[in-house]
Amino acid sequence: MTDEKTGSSGQTIMDWLSQLEVAEGRTHDRMVVFPVFSGGTNRRTEQLEYRTLAEAIAEGSVEVTERPSATVPDLVLRNRGRTMVLVFDGEEILGGKQNRIVNASFLVAAESEVALPVTCVEQGRWRDASPRFASGESANFSLRREKSSQVAESMRTSGRPVADQSAVWEHISALRADSNTFSETGAMNDVYRAREGALAEYERGLPYGNDAIGMIVALNGNIAGAELFDQTRTARALWAKLVRSYALDALDGPACAPVARSRAIRLLERARGARFEACPSLALGEDVRLEGDGVTGAGLVYRGAPVHVSLFRTHHSGGALGRTTGIARASFRRQSRME
After folding, report:
1. What is the domain extent for residue 73?
2. CA 77, CA 45: separation in Å to the nearest integer?
3. Quick check: is 194 in a domain?
4. Is 166 among the domain residues?
5. Measured distance CA(242)–CA(90) in Å, rounded
6. Domain assignment present for 339
7. What percentage of residues in the chain have a pLDDT greater than 90?
8. In the Cβ-directed half-sphere of 302, how many Cα atoms lie within 13 Å?
9. Domain tally, the chain
10. Considering the entire predicted model, what is its pTM?
11. I want to staple 249 with a disulfide (CB 3.0 to 4.6 A). Which of 56, 243, 280, 332 is the partner?
């Protein structure tokens, strides 16, 4: 799966990670966010020009619809604008015949159309809610972590980002049970709506930090993961949505001791020692998959820029890159300490 071009994309991520700087964390309730900044020669003089999906939909330059013959795992994204559009891994898209989440991060070229690989997060509906989709929340952290492992296996075997649909539904069912949320259609979004007040408190307590390009997050006393972008504008635009996605796993967890900045830095060190494999993205750039000692992850690289890199702290070491671990029935807060 790795060739000279995509192999260099993996090395691009490794070199980039080595130059990132981690600030002291900010705590709200059971969650700590460590802002991450560019450092040294990591600062790019020429930044890529693109919009987030939410921005592009709001501007009317992008529409997401069902395929002419609607299918669960694919949607159509039409970018009529003159600027690229970033769709990030786990982003929720609301509407159509059922709500979906995106299976990987994609950078869609200007004035182009792509088939968008997605997974359903609303099991009990297959009827039109609206002809066009809107941007929603993000899949919660623990769902994204487990889905990432399954997508990595699919990328390894088929070159396409496909998740285990049944396992995703199982995870969302457990999430609804954990939060005591009723949903007529089994929708992940209904869990977010039911917990809106508590999630809004996390948003207010963990605001975007000036010039940050991303975050490393600890939940319930454990380092959980990281969301890193090539530029501050993207991090600022997606910050609140990502905070909410991690906070959904922090809610109702146990009280915990403060988490040291050194543990956040250690996550980046683990990632820098990881193995990587890469293949061309279904849109622009290359899709890179990482696995190392206690860490997995994925990255999208385009023209030498790591547009979006996600890291997930895991409790296992070694093993084949991209193996499927399955969606955990229990929430993140029930897992044993991972450090």
Report:
1. 4-334
2. 30
3. yes
4. yes
5. 10
6. no
7. 83
8. 24
9. 1
10. 0.91
11. 332
